[in-house]
Design goal:
mainly alpha
Amino acid sequence: MKSNKINLSNGVTFILALLLSFVFTLLPWEEIRGVGFEDYRNYVERIYELGLYGESYLNPSGTILGALTSELLWGYFLLVIAQLGLDPDIFLWSLSFFMVFTVSLFLLKHIHPLLVLLFLFNPLLVDFFMSQHRNALAFTLLLWAIIVGPRHTLMFLVIAIISVFIHTSSILIFPVYYLGWLLAKKYKGVNFKLYTSFLAFSFAITVVAGKALVLTYFGDRRADIDGDAVSLLYSFFWFLLLPMLLFFYHGNKTAFFSFVVFNLVIFILFTIVGDYSSRFLVIQYPFLLIALAGIKGSAGFMLFSFLFIYQSVQWVYWFRVFIG
């Protein structure tokens, strides 16, 4: 693979991102798969409930902590939709379109359009952008914060705070990216990889060990909810990819690379202990594509080929209900 990126004009990039977003969001994924998106239906029901019970249903405790743990800003989004009498399906589709457009635009700025076309349509991203709107919106805000640039610390912080009240996972993903950006500024080459790996494992162990304790202390409803852990067999590819990525990567998108390493390490440790880990897999995925595009020659081609084969297997796994 001689080149993983071509220079497109802003207008062409914008049009391609629009086309990809329309195709992605207009495909009838639920009908194709033969089963509905559970989270999507929960959002629709939530909008109807807010139409009945109003604002008091959002944060019963009335505290700042309650606003955080109940992700109050997301609740207000849904409340406004309910009060305006807008169609929940149109709202959720529009949100999906905005999020897919953002990630498409982001990827087209960094990697070859053919790679975007091949890897954007991935089961992880389909579930993420078409069903897990709350988490996906927080992630999309991270992309806009990166576009603005971490060097603009105040703006980065403002976007991070907004995102936290949409999904509390932002408490992790914004600091992780910012830490990676700081590491990339200070270290280069082997030292960068060593420090990134050490801090990633230290951070992941702290997150795994402290998650339940922190949630219980703050009375978060998710303290007793583990979620569905992915199988070790499904995760095996990522166990192999991480060391290969650490060995072969010599690109200049080091903050992106660091974000991938942190999230893959957290994903692996969460998987080992049987906790819900897919969130960390999907949020690193666009950055992984950019990192892999920074690996030149046969090594980059090999890793992209492995990822494409794995993605094909993912589709089979994703259709398991339909074909089972």
